[in-house]
Amino acid sequence: MPTFAVEPLAQVAAGVLTAAGAPKDIAQKIAGWLVNANLSGHPSHGVIRVPQYVSAIKDGSYRPAERPHVLRETDTAVLIDGRLGFGHLAAEAVTRATAAKAHQQGVAIGGITRCNHIGRLGEWSELAIDLNVVFFMATGGPGSMVAAPFGGAQGRLSTNPITFGARAGDDAMMLDFATTASAEGKIRVARDKGVPIPPGQILDKHGKPSTNPQDLYDGGVMLPFGGHKGYGLSLMAELLGNNLTGAVEPQPSGRLGTFALAIDPNAFGAGAAFVETTRATFRRMRETKAADGFREVLIPGDLERRSRQAMRASGVELPEATWDAVLKTAADLGLDAAALGRRAAGG
Question: Cα–Cα distance between 167 and 131 in angstroms, integer?
Fold first, then answer.
């Protein structure tokens, strides 16, 4: 697989998005978040998304120059209109707004409507960690109905991911997962690599279990993780992200609503104690004796931090199919794909 230095890769991704109609500052922010997903060990939400976003711009479902707008606001709540632009911008806006309100009022909730894909949800928990709030976010709705409910063989849900973040001094926990057995993007990465996926993630169009990632895109469906438990969390994400925020649309589409909750660490007057007890909790986890087949016990978010540190030094690997799709997208926009390839490679 080709390997790229971080900044040149981000510059190329931004250049492609700019050519597709995104203002330069928006394109640079989106590209930065995409590359950060690769760095964090989640290529499913990284540069692989550039062709998808450009295709959505071309078909009119993404409005690349739009910026989020506050629809409704109180001391403890804010509702953001994503205006069908890049969802990342709305996710950043609702995270910052709820964090600021939580520091003033102890707790705050936020919602996003008319929202496109918001990227790796862990990005927003990590931002909230930097802003020193305890944070929860759920994105949900029928969406493209790529996921089946427990016991079903038809798509009725989106992947409906959730994230949680909490900080204890210079340490933190960051939880981020789809309520399906895998994020859809991870199946996309497996398809680009030409490798099978683990059993239990998808059914093919005939309702039969499959390990061929292409079967998902040929009419298959994704399955919830943990059976009925993942299904229940998925419904929760739809009720919070889609129904509660009023993001419901007449017909299912790729757009999803988002719900956010921010809590000041001192909301119950336990600020300093919260930090110390959370540190102790993390320490108790990490000091656990490792089971057979494991080297250590980690805190959610440790792997992402380690991955960023390692890949900033070694570079970002992309499957050939992913990089070819980015270059083809660039060429279709009238850009010099060969020159972009050399630029990304540092030449």
Answer: 9
- Residues near 325 by Cβ (< 8 Å), separated by ≥ 6? 48, 50, 51, 192
Q: Are residues 29 and 175 in the same domain?
A: no
In a domain, 287, yes or no: yes
H, E, C per residue of the chain: CCEECHHHHHHHHHHHHHHCCCCHHHHHHHHHHHHHHHHCCCHHHCHHHHHHHHHHHHCCCCCCCCCCEEEEECCCEEEEECCCCCHHHHHHHHHHHHHHHHHHHCEEEEEEECCCCCCCCHHHHHHHHHCCCEEEEEEECCCCCCECCCCCCCCCECCCCEEEEEEECCEEEEEEECCECCCHHHHHHHHHHCCCCCCCCEECCCCCEECCCHHHHCCCEECECCCHHHHHHHHHHHHHHHHHCCCCCCCCCCCCEEEEEEECCCCCCCHHHHHHHHHHHHHHHHCCCCCCCCCCCCCCCHHHHHHHHHHHHHCEECCHHHHHHHHHHHHHCCCCHHHHHHHHCCC
CA 213 – CA 141 distance, rounded (Å): 23
Cβ atoms of 148 and 221 within 8 Å: the answer is yes
pLDDT 10s digits, 30-85:
999 999 999 999 999 999 999 999 999 999 999 999 999 999 999 999 999 999 99
Domain harbouring 298, CATH code: 3.30.1370.60
Please state the φ and ψ torsions of residue 255, each to the nearest 5 degrees. Answer: -85, 140
Distances (CA, A) of 150 to 22, 102, 154: 39, 36, 10
Instruction: Supply the CATH number for residue 10's domain.
Output: 1.10.1530.10
Q: Give me the domain span that covers residue 343.
A: 1-61+315-347
In a shared domain, residues 128 and 2: no
**Residues 265-321 pLDDT 10s:** 999 999 999 999 999 999 999 999 999 999 999 999 999 999 999 999 999 999 999
